[in-house]
Design goal:
Blueprint: H1 3-8, H2 12-20, H3 28-33, H4 35-39, H5 43-46, H6 50-74, H7 77-94, H8 98-119, H9 126-131, H10 134-179, H11 189-246, H12 255-285, H13 293-315, E1 316-323, E2 333-335, E3 340-346, E4 358-363, E5 369-372, E6 376-378, E7 389-400, H14 413-417, E8 420-421, E9 423-431, E10 434-441, E11 445-448, H15 454-467, E12 483-484, H16 485-499, H17 506-517, E13 527-528, H18 530-534, H19 545-565, H20 575-582, E14 589-594, E15 602-609, E16 615-619, H21 625-630, H22 633-639, E17 641-644, E18 655-656, E19 660-661, H23 662-666, E20 694-699, E21 712-713, H24 717-724, H25 729-741
Parallel strand pairs: 2-11, 14-18, 17-20
Antiparallel strand pairs: 1-3, 3-7, 4-6, 4-9, 5-7, 8-11, 9-10, 12-13, 14-15, 15-16, 18-19, 20-21
Main location: cytoplasm
GO molecular function: DNA binding; DNA-binding transcription factor activity, RNA polymerase II-specific
Domain SH2: 564-666
Length: 743
């Protein structure tokens, strides 16, 4: 079943979440019509590879054209209209930046997987629940409402300033007219009456000046309060959501809404600044005793400039954290001399700033590392599909400097993977007479010199971003805090949903909890230390919990991904629980679980019944990535044979737990049909029957322990059928037993 088919079967509350991240950037119609094709492409790799992204965009447009041809034949006018519009939209938006659509589609697919994983959970995790707090949503709506009201107030004040300007021009004209008269004419009754009218007009001018200054003051106060409270909280919430998304959590939306708020506030402040400049202009033409402009204007202008400085400083954000293209799901882990990408955005989108802001990237201040490559670039509105003012560094490489003694710095495994660094960015904005220096930094990154350090480095990134919302605590691992186990388990499920397409259910998480803390009943408030997660060996083992889990992720990704996504790998189940599940099942029922003693190993256990009714269990020695690279796991399940004493080899695996026929579960993943008989002329060395390795175990009468699955005989079911035409079962068994006796 395709991922999209699974999504369509979700409950309405989950479908509403799916609906939120499909828009004109990637329309849902395309996701629906091209579901199979979209899921078969590697969008994650393309998101950091321009050549690959260009090809995928071209192929996407070709797929849309094919759909257009199909619906044209069906004369579906509405769908024809929508597809033409969507094709034009995709072509226009992404022609100059194909990697952006790769990022969008990759994120959408990942978010679908996360929602599917969440739907399989009995309750929403504590972290995700906190991110989707209704109070936060209400605050977002309030911020947007207040920003809109402030913009309207600033525009209304513009009209008041214009009225004041017109009133003063009329006063100037009438006053100058009187001044131009002869002295004798000034004593006339008519002129005296005009003078009284001018005095009344001056009083009105004074009132209007005070009124305009008061309104400007109120607008400035409202902006100040909004920036100090709700907008700051919104920005901090977005940054926290970004942290969580970086370690596999829900996608962090809301940056476009923040950009809209920041831009409207900046426009309002510049509008107020122009109003104050206009008042200064009016002041030079007319002033009087008690004039409020020279008293209030300097203070208001100073406050406006102060707010603009703060608004610009807060608007300079890292939109996409540093990430190596080779490991798109492991952001903030950087390998020396390997390129990484990072994207910044200025949330104040003003056309005057396009290509006017040059951003410089640096790393730390300890001079241990330097950045090679293009580290100065101009922000522009052309690289982003939504026209935001952004810059993306795509060719930066961290390089470790040699020490004064000529050797590299300390590269011990713990020092490297727990040592945090920061990529810093600085620029300068010059606009309307203001010069503002801006600085921002990435979330802490971990530098590695060898890819073998990647798992522990990623564990550091997980622990940091799970445990703190401080964006720059580079000394965090001097004394790392404990983490709540319930939150950690939620993050571990995200590792599976984001990396291998399917998260963990409550039973699987319970098994992980028991492995981390023993047989405790409740783990909702249990605090787990960093050492127990990543540094201390598991009881009786030579590896840590995290190394064990990371090896399983790697195994799934490289060797059993389709089986995992289909939900046929129970995986995390203890030997004790395994027997409880199987004991009452039909003989031949089996389940798949990850080995607890072998790194990156998977085994299967089946239930059998002796003639006396006794229930027995058999587990094969775990298969590791070396064996699975030689033979697909689905084929192993299909072809697996057991040789019992005095019996012909047979496959004991009949039903996948609880009662799914084996071929129904795994049939679509077999590499070929089991009944295909290869002929000598079909391939291989002339005169020989091509051989295929099949797994065989031997179980003796006096032992329930299976033989090692390393006994892979060069015999396929088809070859066995051919041998049966010439040899008796006894002769075949004798040959097999002779072979086994020499192993």
């Amino acid at each position: 079943m395709s991922q999209w088919s699974q999504v369509q079967q979700l409950e309405i509350k989950f479908l509403e979440q799916v609906d939120q991240f499909y828009d004109d950037n990637f329309p849902m119609e395309i996701r629906h019509l091209l579901a199979q094709w979209i899921e078969s492409q590697d969008w994650e790799a393309a998101s950091n590879n321009e050549a690959m992204a260009t090809i995928l965009l071209q192929n996407l447009l070709i797929q849309v054209d094919e759909q257009l041809d199909r619906v044209s034949q069906e004369k579906n006018l509405l769908l024809i209209h929508n597809l033409k519009r969507i094709r034009k939209l995709l072509q226009g938006k992404y022609h100059g930046n194909p990697m952006h659509i790769a990022v969008i589609i990759s994120n959408c697919l990942r978010e679908e997987r996360r929602i599917l994983a969440a739907a399989s959970m009995p309750v929403q995790g504590p972290l995700e629940k906190s991110l989707q707090n209704s109070v936060v949503s209400e605050r977002q709506r309030n911020v947007e409402h207040k920003v809109s009201a402030i913009k309207n107030s600033a525009q209304m004040t513009d009209q008041d300033v214009k009225y004041l300007e017109d009133l003063q021009e009329e006063f100037d004209f009438r006053y100058k007219t009187i001044q131009s008269l002869e002295q004798s004419d000034k004593n006339s009754a008519l002129i005296k009456q005009e003078m009284l009218a001018l005095q009344a007009m001056l009083n009105t001018l004074d009132y209007k000046r005070k009124e305009v200054l008061s309104k400007i003051g109120r607008v400035i106060h409202e902006i100040d309060m909004l920036m100090s409270n709700m907008l700051t909280e919104e920005l901090l919430d977005w940054k926290r959501r970004q942290q969580i998304a970086c370690i596999g959590g829900p996608l962090h939306g809301g940056l476009d809404q923040l950009q809209n708020c920041f831009t409207l506030l900046a426009e309002s402040l510049f509008q107020v600044r122009r109003q104050l400049e206009k008042l200064d202009e009016l002041l030079t033409r007319l002033t009087y005793d008690g004039d409020p402009i020279p008293v209030q204007r300097p203070q208001l202008l100073e406050k406006v400039n102060f707010l603009l400085y703060n608004l610009f400083r807060n608007s300079f954000v890292v939109e996409r954290q540093p990430c190596m293209p080779t490991h798109p799901q492991r952001p903030m882990v950087l390998k020396t001399l390997i390129q990484f990408t990072v994207k910044l955005r200025l949330l104040i989108k003003l056309p005057e700033l396009n290509y006017q802001i040059r951003v410089k990237a640096t790393i730390d201040n300890n001079r241990r590392f330097v950045l090679c490559g293009t580290h100065v670039k101009a922000m522009n509105m052309d690289e982003s599909a939504n026209g935001s003012l952004a810059v993306e560094f795509r060719h930066l490489q961290p390089k470790e400097m040699k020490s004064s003694a000529g050797s590299k710095g300390n590269e011990g495994p713990h020092m490297v993977t727990e040592e945090l660094h920061s990529i810093s960015f600085e620029t300068q904005v010059c606009l309307y007479g203001l010069t503002i220096n801006l600085e921002t930094s990435s979330l802490p990154v971990v530098m590695i010199s060898n890819v073998s350090q990647l798992p522990n480095a990623w564990a550091s990134i997980i622990w940091y971003n799970l445990s703190t919302n401080d964006p720059q605590n580079l000394s965090f691992f001097n004394n790392p805090p404990a983490a709540t186990l319930s939150q950690l388990l939620e993050v571990l499920s995200w590792q599976f949903s984001s990396y291998v397409g399917r998260g963990l259910n409550s039973e699987q998480l319970n098994m992980l909890a028991e492995k981390l803390m023993g047989q405790q009943v409740s783990y909702s408030d249990y605090q787990l230390s960093w050492a127990k997660f990543c540094k201390e060996h598991l009881p009786g083992k030579s590896f840590t919990f995290w190394v064990w889990l990371e090896a399983i992720l790697d195994l799934i990704k490289k060797h059993i991904l389709p089986l995992w996504i289909d939900g046929y790998v129970m995986g995390f189940v203890s030997k004790e629980k395994e027997r409880i599940l199987l004991k009452d099942k039909t003989p031949g029922t089996f389940l798949l679980r990850f080995s607890e003693s072998n790194l990156g190993g998977i085994t299967f256990t089946w239930v059998d019944q002796l003639e006396n009714g006794e229930v027995t269990f058999h587990s094969v020695e775990p298969y590791n990535k070396g064996r699975l690279a030689a033979l697909p796991f689905a084929d192993i399940l299909r072809d697996y044979k057991v040789i019992m004493a005095d019996n012909v080899p047979e496959n004991p695996l009949k039903y996948l737990y609880p009662d799914i026929p084996k071929d129904k579960a795994f049939g679509k993943h077999y590499s070929c049909q089991p009944n295909e008989v290869s002929k000598p002329s079909d391939g291989g060395v002339k005169g020989y029957v091509p051989s295929v390795f099949i797994p065989v175990s031997k179980i003796l009468n006096d032992s329930t322990d299976p033989h090692s699955p390393s006994d892979l005989l060069p015999m396929s079911p088809s070859v066995y059928a051919v041998l049966r035409e010439h040899l008796s079962p006894t002769a075949i068994e004798t040959a097999v037993r002779c072979e086994l006796s020499h192993r």
